[in-house]
Every structure is written in C-alpha cells, then in structure tokens.
Amino acid sequence: MGMSTFRRMTQLFLSGHWPGLTLSLVLALGTTAMGLVIPWLVKITIDQALVTGRTGLLRALVGGIVAAGLLRMALAFGRRVVSGKVALKVETEVRDRLFAHLQTLGLDFYLRSQTGQLISRSIADVRAVRMFLGYGLIFIVTHVTTLVAVTVILLVLQPRLALLSLAPMPLILVVARVFSHKLHPTLWAIQQRVAELTAVAEERITGIRVIKAFAVEDIQQEAFAEASDRIYRQNLEAASIRGRYVPLLGFLPSLSLIIILFYGGRLVVLDQMTLGSLVAFNGYVLLLVWPLRMLGMLVSWAARAIASGERVLELLDETARVTDRATARPLPRVRGAIEFHDVTFSYGDRRVLDGISLKVEPGETVALVGPTGCGKSTLAHLVLRFYDPIDGTVTIDGHDLRDVTLASLRRSIGLVDQDPFLFSLSVRDNIRYGDPEASPRRVEAAAHAAAAHDFIEALPQGYDTVIGERGMTLSGGQRQRLALARALLIDPPILVLDDATSSVDAETETRILEALGGQRGNRTSIIVAHRPSTVMLADRVILLDAGRIVRSGPPTEVPWQQILVREAEQALERDIAAAHRERLRETSL
Amino acid sequence: MTPRGDPRGELPEDPRSGLRVWLNRRHVLRLAAFGWAYRWQALGSMVAMLAVTATGLTGPYLLRLAIDKGIAGKDLSYLGWVAALYLLAGMLGAVFHGVQTYGVNWVGQRVIRDLRDRLFRHLTSLDIDYYSRQRAGWIISRLTNDIEALETLLVDGVAQLVVNSLTLTGAVIILFGMDWRLAVVTMAVMPVLLLGTAVFRVKAQKAYRRVRSAVADVTVSLQESLSGIRVIQAFRREERNMQAFSAVNDVNRKANLDTVYLSGVYFPSVEFLSAVSTGLILLYGGSRVADGDLTVGILAAFIGYLSSFFDPVESLSELYNTLQSSGAALEKIMSVLDTEPGDAELLGALTAGGIAGALACEDVSFSYGADSEEVLDGVTLSIPAGQRVSLVGPTGAGKSTLAKLFLRFYQPTSGRITVDGADLRDYDIRDYRRHVGYVPQEPYLFTGSVLDNIRLADPQADRAEAERPALELGVHDLFLALPAGYDTEVRERGLALSAGERQLVSFARAFFAKPAVLILDEATSSVDPGTEYRIEAALSRLLEGRTSLVIAHRLSTVENSDRILVMEDGRIVEDGDHHSLLAAGGPYARLYRSQLRSVEGPA
Ligand SMILES: Nc1ncnc2c1ncn2[C@@H]1O[C@H](COP(=O)(O)OP(=O)(O)OP(=O)(O)O)[C@@H](O)[C@H]1O
Ligand SMILES: Nc1ncnc2c1ncn2[C@@H]1O[C@H](COP(=O)(O)OP(=O)(O)OP(=O)(O)O)[C@@H](O)[C@H]1O
Ligand SMILES: [Mg+2]
Ligand SMILES: [Mg+2]
Questions:
Q1: Could you tell me how far CA B582 lies from the centroid of its own chain?
Q2: Closest Cα of chain B to A196: distance in Å?
Q3: How far is CA B248 from the centre of its chain?
C-alpha cells in the first residue's frame, strides 16, 4: 500500500521535474560534502599548521576554510532555491490538476462528498505532499548516501569491529519499519479528521443564518468541538507512537558506540588495537549516528506524505461517470427536438423516473408539473446530461446525448436551476457567465428580458456591483432574475427553466413571461412550474407523478391543479391520516 | 453601528499591523493564556526536555572517561562500568525523550484544540453582517490553514526552541569558561548575524503575510467553485474557472517562493558565518599558540565546542521560519477574535419566556450599508399578539429585510422594533430567537438525516417529537415516502432532496420548537399546488394563537390571513384584509388582478 502509493506519487507528480530534482540532489550532496570538508580542514590546520607553527600555511588553510564555507553557502542557496522551486511547482501542479479533475466529476460525486473534505484534501494534503517531495526526498537520499558511504568506509577500515558495531543496524531498520507501519494509519486518520472538521466548519459557516435564526450556536459549537477533539485525540495517539519509537530510534545507534567502547576498548587493553584507531573509529561511527537518529523524523515525514498522497490520489482516481465518448461529435446546429425514449433513472436504489417517453417538438414549450419530489428537476437535468439514464435514451434532434460532446450539448442549453447559484462577481460577470466576452449591450438585453434591468440600475454600482457570496446581498427574486438573465444571455436554442419564477411577484412574472413569449422564436423550452400563470405559457403540459407521465395536453385541457389538489385531499383523508391524528393526540398529551 | 464595507472585500487590516514586529507580544501573551490551564503539564515537559539535554551531554563525557581511565589505564572493569553507565544514560535519555514528545504534544495539541474551539465559538457569535462581507473560504482558511501553521510552532517549535536555547546557553558558558578572549572572537560575527536576522525578519514577515492571504484566496476560490459546480458545468466554465484557479494558485506559489528565496539566503549565510568564525578562531588562536599563550589542546577543544554553539544557532534560525509563518497565522486568527460581535448579537437582559408575540415597528428605517440606499423607509406597524399577517409586494421591496429585522439579524438604522412593548434591543437575543420560528427564503439543510434537520433546535428530541410538525402540517406521508423515511440522509445542503422537499423540511423545522411567533418567508414557493393545499389547510389551525408574518407571492396563500400588508419600495403602502383591499382598488387589487390575468394566459 505505502510503497505503491509512493511509486505512483513519484510517477504522477514528479514527471517533468526530474532534472530539477536531480540538480537539487547534486547540490545537496555537494553541501553535505562541504560540511564534511570543513572539519577536515580544521583538523589539518590544527595538526599541521598550529603544531608546527607555520603561519603561511595557517593563513592558507583558514582561507580554505572560509572558501569552503562560501562554497557551501552557494551550494546550499542553490539547493534551497532549486528544491523549493521544484516543490512549489509540484504542489501547484498537483493542486491545479486536482481542481481540473474535480471540475469534470459529476453531480453524483458531489452528492457523496462534502465541500470541506475536498477543500482539505486539495489544500492541506497537497501541501503535505509538497513538503515531502520538496525536502523529505532529498534528505532521505543524502542521508542514505551518507549512511552507505560511512558503512563502506568502516568495513574497509576494520571489518571485524565494523561488523560488530553495525550489529544493531538490522534492529534499527526493523524498528523503523514497524514504526512507519504503526504511524501511517494514524496519520491518515489525522488528515481525515482534519477534513471532517473542515466539512463541519464549512457547513456551519455557509449555514450561519439558519444557526442564528434557531439560536443553536451552542449545539453547533459542541459539534465543532467534538470534531476538534477527535483531531486532538488522533494527534495524541500519533504522539504516543512517536513518543515510543522516535526515542528508541535515537537510542539504538548509541548501542554501536557502546559496543565500540566496550569491545574496542578491550582490544586496546589487550594490545590488539591502538588507541588512535579506536578514537578514529569512534569518530566515524559518530558520523553514522546522526543520520540514523534522523531516521525517526524521516519516517514520520514520509508516512504523513504517503497518507496525504493516498488521499489526493483517491480523488484523482475518481472517474467521471458522464464524460465524452471517444467517438463523441459536437452537436450540429440544434433545431431543438428533444426526445425521451423509455427513460428510467434512479439515484442509487431510489427509482425516480420510470419509463418516461416524451417528445418535445422544435420550438415547443412544454411545462412539467407534478407533486413535490416526483422527478421534474431530475428529468430536466437529464437534458443537460448531468446524469445518464439507467435505461432508455435521451436525444436531441435524434442524436443520443451520449454521442455528442458535453461542451456542445451544454452550450445549446440555457439552464435556470431551481435554487439559483450566483458567484461573488459583479452583476455583469454573473450575467455573462456563459459567455464572458459578451458585449455590455447583450448583457443589458438579457437583463431586460429577465426583468432585471431596473433593479440592477438601482444597485449602488449598477452592473458593476459585486454581489456577495451566492448572491446573498440580493433579494430572492433578484437572484432568480439574474440567473434567468444568465441563461438568456447565451441565446440558447433550448431553454430549461426549473421553477425559475417561484420567487418573483405576479406582476414581474407577467413581464418575464411576456418577454419570454415574445422572444421565443423557435426556441424549445422545458419549464418546470408550480404556478398556473407560468404553466399557461406552455403549448403542452405534462403531469408527472411518481416518475411517470400521467397526463399531457394543452394547459387549458389538463386540469393539473385540480388533480394535484384532489390527490392531496385524498391523502389527507386517507386512513393514514386518521392514524396520524391518533398519534398526534398521543404526542400532544 | 457596525462597520460595513464592500461585501466582497476582506475586512480592512489593522493600520498598525505594518509596524508590528513578528509575533506581536500581546498575541503571544493571549496564546500563552490558552496554555495556562496546562501549565503543570507544560512544566513537566520542560523538565523532561532538561533531562534530555542533560543526558545528551553526559554521553561524550562518559566516552572521555572510558578512554582516559578505562582504556588508557587498562582497567577492564572500569571500562565495563562506564559502558553500563553509558547504556543507562542512553536509556534514561530515551525515556525522557519519549516523555517530552508525548508531553509537548499533549499540551500543544490541547492548546490548539482550545484555540480552534474558541475561534469557532467566536465566529458563531459574530453578526450576519460579518458573514455577508467575509467569504466562507476565508473564514475556513483561518480555522484550518492558520491553525495548522500555529500547530507546527506549538508542537515542534517550542520544544526545539527550549532545547536549542539551553544548549546554546550551555555552550556560551563553556566557551567563556575556557578562554574568554577566544570566546569574544567567536562572538565577533554576532552583530552581523543579528543585523541579518533583523533584515530577514522584516522581509519574512511581509512574505509570510502574503502566504497567509494567498492560501486563503485559494481556499475561497476552491470553496466557491465546488459549491457552484452545477452552474459551472451547465455553463461550461470549467476551462476559465481552471485558469482563474490556476492564477490564484500561482500567486500562492509565488508568495511561498519569496519565503524560499529569503530562507535560501538566510540559512546558508548563518552557516557561512560559522565557517568564518572557525577561521577567526584559528587565526587568532593560532597566533596565540605561536606566542605560547595558548595550548593546542584548548584550541582544539574550543573548536570542538564551536559546533555546540553554531548548531543551535542554525536550528534556531530554521525555527525562525516556523515562527514567522505562525506569527502571520496568529495575527490573522487574532484579527478574527478581535472582531466585535456587532450590536445585533449583543445579549440583552430580557428573556422571552412566555412572550405573547406582539410585534411593532416604530418608524423603522434601514439600509444595508452606509453608502447604499434605504431598503426600509419609515415603516410603522403594529401586529397584535396572535394575528396572522401577510406581507406581499413586488420583488426587492424589502419584505425579507423586514423579516430579518424582526429576527434582529440587523438593527434598524433608525426607529425601533418592539416585542410585547419592549425594545427588541433589550432582549437576550438567543433566547428571543428560540421563540421565533423562521422559514428563510432559501432553505438551508445540514448533512444528516431529515429527522436531524427538523430537530435542529434540540438534537436530543425523540422521534415522535420530531415527526410531530410534519404530522401537523399534513406532510408526514411525503417524508415517509422518502427512501429511508425520516432517516433519509439529505447530504450537504440537502442536495439529495428535491427543492420542495427541502422547503418542507425547513418548514417543519420552524414549527418544531413550538414558537410563539412565526416568520414564513416564501415558505411554500417551491411546492406543488397539492402540497400547498395541505399546508394551507393545516396553517389556519397551526397559526391559531400565534403571531405570524407570512411573506408570499402566490396570493392564494394570502387570502386567508387576518390582515394583509402591501410593501413597496420599503414602505407599507396598504394595510387591511383581502376584501377591503380588493374593494379599495389599490396596489393589492392590481397585484391580485395581474395574477388572475396571468392564470388566464398572457396576452
Ligand atoms: N445583505 C444585503 N446587502 C445589501 N443589500 C441587500 C442585502 N439583502 C438585500 N438587499 C437589498 O435590499 C433590497 C430588499 O431586499 P429584500 O430581500 O428585503 O426584498 P424582498 O422584498 O424580500 O424581495 P423578494 O420578493 O425578491 O424576496 C433589495 O434591493 C436587495 O438588493
Ligand atoms: N441527488 C439525489 N440523490 C438521491 N435522491 C435524490 C437526489 N435528487 C433528488 N432525489 C430524490 O428524487 C426525487 C425526485 O427529485 P426531483 O428533484 O427530481 O423532484 P422535483 O419533481 O423536481 O420536486 P420539486 O417540485 O420539489 O422540485 C425526490 O424524492 C428526491 O428526494
Ligand atoms: Mg425540482
Ligand atoms: Mg425576499
């Protein structure tokens, strides 16, 4: 698991960066080497210049030391800048890539995932990967190199003593391995807890108005505190693992020193070795101890990066259900004939559309009506191919939607969603969201058609007024009209209005409907509505119930309201209702 | 008055912040206050750190003893003892190291947790105005990214700081003890180091501030794009959005890169100074050795100890990075904690227990910002307890605004609102809101089940209690028809429900707490006529004995009310019941006729 993630991470994230990484590695090795050269020069200075009192040599050597220091500075600067650049580049690329990928994923994915979770993975986890790839990797390589080099030197110098003093090595490696195995899952869990907390916070912050209205601040604070406490406890668990293993890993190398001291000391006492070589040997082993001590830290580092990498890869591995087929063609000029052939659709196990067959002629306006939750929005969303039907096909002008490119399909459709989402941009940029190059004239025309021009003009900066997040600084009806203007701006051959005038007053609605009727031309419209005034605009009304079409015909001939109200009456009258009343009596006692 | 500004922009920075030194002392003290509760544990960890440093220092000493006495003296048993002691010291050191690791985490993570909780608690106490100005992603960034930056300081930084400072102090004492003149020479590079550090500090502070706001921008962009994904996909903005995100992401990279350059210059320079220092010692010491003033032994030892001096200096300067980054984060966090809740959220003394619910406005005017137009313009109005009032009027007239004022989301700019005759300002606002049922124009549901969303006000309520409002509203069977009935998971923002279903949940939620006052803002705008009929049928009974303000565009909802208010341009222009208003032939009659006409079909 860990290793394969690691391999995938390096393959996926580091491709194209190997030259930079190699360069920074070379620089890092150079820096390390300079770090070793300086003490060596000092030793020579003491041994040869000071003891003999040769001032010329002393000056030269000191010059050498300073020069080496200068070189080390240059190398270290290079190493830091090169590796820092690469690491940041990698981080930025991975995040860009993740973002691009997230945008291709379908609504089914967004239903499963919480925004906060995605934010946390795209920011905190990607950052953790950067830390590791940028610095950790280089550290590991330089340390391993030092380790190997010193081991070889030791073996050459004094094989027997070397083997003895290196005896704890396998133990160290085993402990390090166990450590990383134990640490990995807790670090994964920490990242997960952090993401959960982000999700809790994100929802509470966007829903603050409801929290305040219901005065449930305390309860939400508790929910947050709980999530916060879970992070704490998980961190503590990691700390207790670290607290056990890091000191152990720090201590084990000392065993080597003790072995040398004791066994080597014996050899000296028994005259089998000189004191000088013992001291020298000790010096070399000390060189080993430092990288070994760092092992604990490196292991935690790597474990965290791998845990985060897994979480990033997990998202990158999500595949979009709705994508362009390899053979997909752009939709040719749209006439606007929409057809549902025996379409069935479910959300998970929940069947929402059940064998819908419906033909909408080019230029026709069809109103979808039906009880709450009967599948109207779902049907509308299928036209934009937010989902693919489970059974049956949806076609436009005879082209199966799955055979055309998503971009060309969606370019042909203007959608006003049931709850309009606006961005914190200017009014103008919101209206021309579907065509950022649209001229001011077109923007205004769209605003006029949506009966929005007047209120926009009255805003503090008119069309340049920046609206708050989700358009929260506008009234409900104003938001809805901007969403309508946004859809009309792209002048789509097909218009899908999902309850798009539910928040405007009758007079404004009449204006909008008149405008829509006036510029209808040969636009095909699918209008989901609950208000008779809107439905009257349609050529045909389709009454849905429980995912099936139960009636259809001209609005004047289908008494859909009466049918819906009668059903409601019946439902209220039904025995269940009586049973409810029974329970009602119980609960109100 | 609460300060108001550009709805999009960040709150203005404290003008003094440019002059602040890193880690503002006041901020650090406030942070330390969070640790005060754990002072004993912190002390314990500190002792462990001392022990770790001490045992670390014994190692080389024991080694020396072993060589000088054991080996040189050819005393094998002595050697054995020393080795055993060495082992013991190592083991003790490891144990203390473990205690230190755990202890520091214990304290540090707790402080972080408390700070995070406190930050969130404070955030929930801020007024709605704050949330209309500050973007969600920005706030999230404070709660996550900034806290994470601070965590690095508290958990890794503090321990390093202590251990390195201890070692440094020890080294300086030893150096001066050995030969003070040589020690002075060693310190000769200090002024350069301090000067460099000062320059670095100023530059790094700016750079790290940029990093903090850059990462917040990335969060903002991400948050908005993820929430608006449906629009993005419908309008094919993926490409452009990607570019916009890339741009912010790249600003973040560049901001970080600045810190890379800064530390790239700083740390290697510190290392270089240590080499210079070594050279100086050799030169000066060498000349003294030549003069016979100093032994080679002392000089060698001096150089040996030099690393105990420069290693901590290096580590401390590395730590500086963490300090700078956490300092910038702490600054942002404290700026949130320093934001005043705004007077709309002040807790007055009046409790609302047993309020009758008589609402009144006395010449109330309101505007959302100092520079924006008046949304309400001298509204005077009195609603006796128990009356069912409908509020109608064109879109943007100020209906929702009036509703929000009754909830005290905002305070009137002038005039006053009274409840049961007492000024709304004097109420304990949370207590008051508990007695008001509110269905906002935009229903907002939280991740969780339908049931959890209905019993938002009291998560401990039992099932029967939570099902009651839907029963009363006559929509019980609609909830039962969901895949898992009341236990259906609604997902983030209620995405797994239809819009009408969301609205019904929001409706039921308002009735759950049996409020004395009900404010329904377009509460049935997204339901079909059948469901509306059910609710309408139930409402006449449910609103009995409760004061209610019902905002609606569908006039069918309005006819049954005791009284109808017509609002236009922030003013109440008509007031009366359905029949009298129709007869008056004013704006209401016009609205009513236009609705009738549109039912008959547009011209
Ligand atoms: N948070 C805000 N900041 C600034 N202006 C706002 C804010 N909320 C609303 N407005 C403005 O105040 C005016 C009244 O808005 P309000 O929401 O009260 O209207 P409304 O009567 O409820 O309309 P609708 O029927 O469309 O919901 C509008 O012009 C709107 O743009
Ligand atoms: N993403 C989803 N996952 C699971 N179930 C869903 C999802 N979206 C909708 N549903 C369910 O499918 C049914 C149909 O939903 P849809 O939104 O199509 O209804 P609708 O006819 O548009 O209703 P309304 O009039 O309330 O807008 C509802 O019962 C709803 O609970
Ligand atoms: Mg719908
Ligand atoms: Mg409103």
A1: 52
A2: 11
A3: 21
Same domain, B242 and B117: yes
Interface of B with A in 347-406 (CB under 8 A): 368-369, 371-373, 392-396, 399-401
Cβ neighbors of A276 (< 8 A, separation 6 or more) are: none
Does ligand 2 lie within 6 Å of residue B500's CB atom? Answer: yes
The residues, ordered by sequence, that sit 6+ positions from B273 with a Cβ below 8 Å of its Cβ are B189, B192, B193, B310
Q: CA of B10, closest CA in chain A: separation in Å? A: 12
Q: Is residue B4 part of a domain?
A: no
Q: How far is CA B409 from CA A201, B42, B130, B405, B572, in A?
A: 21, 43, 11, 6, 21
Domain boundary pick from B341, B369, B395: B341
Same domain, B283 and B224: yes
Q: Is the CB of A381 under 6 A from ligand 2?
A: no
**B115/B329 Cα distance (integer angstroms):** 12
My answer on whether B365 and B245 are in the same domain is no
A235 interfaces chain B, CB cutoff of 8 Å? yes
Q: B483 vs A436: CB contact, 8 Å cut-off? A: no
Over residues A106-155, the pLDDT tens digits come to: 888 888 888 888 888 898 889 888 877 777 777 777 778 777 877 887 78
d(CA B591, CA A101) in angstroms, rounded, equals 49
Ligand nearest to the CA of A346: 2
Measured in Å, residue B366 CA sits from the centre of ligand 3 at: 34
- pTM summary value: 0.85
Q: What angle do CA A34, A35, A37 make, to 5 degrees?
A: 60
Give domain status of residue B94, yes or no. Answer: yes
Residue B347's alpha-carbon distances to A339, B342, B410, B424, in angstroms, are 59, 11, 14, 11
Select the residue of B401, B442, B597 nearest A419 (Cβ to Cβ): B442
Protein residues placing their CB within 5 Å of the ion ligand 3: A 377, 418; B 498-499
CATH number at residue B131: 1.20.1560.10
Residue A158: per-residue pLDDT: 74
- B542: Cα separation from own chain's centroid: 39
> From ligand 4's centre to the CA of B551, what distance in Å?
8
The interface pTM score, or ipTM, of the predicted complex is 0.83
Give the mean model confidence (pLDDT) for residues B37-59: 86
Q: Is residue A410 within 8 Å of residue A470, measured between CB atoms?
A: no
Q: Cβ contacts (< 8 Å) between A588 and chain B: which residues?
A: 468
Q: For residues A232 and A193, give the distance between their C-alpha atoms in angstroms, rounded to a whole number.
A: 9
Mapping DSSP to helix (H, G, I), strand (E, B) and coil, where does residue B423 land?
A: strand
Between the alpha carbon of residue A479 and those of residues A500, B499, B551, B552, B595, the distances in Å are 10, 16, 17, 16, 21
Interchain contact B573–A (C-beta under 8 A): no
Alpha-carbon gap, residue A70 to B271, rounded angstroms: 9
The rounded distance, in Å, linking the Cα atoms of B68 and B236 is 80
CB within 8 Å of B127: residues ≥ 6 apart: B2, B341, B342, B343, B344, B345, B409, B410
Strands A365-369 and A524-528: parallel
B286 touches chain A (CB under 8 A): yes
DSSP A124: I
CA B482 to chain centroid, in Å, comes to 35
Does residue B332 sit in the same domain as residue B365? no
Which range marks the domain in which residue B427 is found?
Answer: 347-435+556-603
The CATH number assigned to the domain holding B579 equals 3.40.50.300
Say how many domains are in chain B: 2
**Span A246-289, pLDDT tens digits:** 899 888 888 888 888 888 888 888 888 777 777 777 777 776 77
